[in-house]
User: What shape does this take?
Amino acid sequence: MAMAAAPGSSKCLLVTGPPGVGKTTLITRVLEALRTSHPHLTVQGFYTREVREGADRVGFEVVTLDGRRGPLASSKISSTESFRWPTVGKYKVDVASFESLALPQLQIKEGIDLFIVDEVGKMELYSSSFFPAVLRVLDSNIPFLATIPIPKFGRDIPGVARLRNHPGATVFTLNPGNRDAMKDTIFSQIVNLLQNH
Assistant: This one.
């Protein structure tokens, strides 16, 4: 179950779990529920979606909460500039595309009620500006809901470890059996934060 800060008071909610367990789905379901219960909510952020060709996953795209989208990583690309791009598994990470979409979403402005980031992971952390922007959001005291990968072979990515160990963070570990309950718990915790915000 959730650990760390006093239950209910944590402004940094982190969802983790194995790949494919439904972290992005959970985030989008929480967001839909919040938009229904709080129609005037101002949310900024992005989520990451698989790009598929038939049955094959060929990459990932970034989708901002205001509806813009662009590539994050691809296993198909072979342009001249992509030879210099960082690689995660079979995917080439398009850092410039990611930054142009994600960084404006992490700008702290008056009137923002909630930030959503899916995910703070290896691909995203190839952007040197991304993690400092995430830390600024944490320091702003605006509620923050994010997904993080589960440590691989017991090793955590340094940025992810810093987030997970952040004094104000509550970590929710998702598994197929607790997804619905987690959605409700996270939803009520955010509603609680919005009332006290």
In short: Residues 4 and 177 are 22 Å apart (CA to CA). Residues 1-8 have pLDDT under 50 and may be disordered. The longest helix spans residues 179-196. The beta strands are 12-16, 43-53, 56-64, 69-74, 87-88, 91-93, 114-118, 144-147, 169-173.
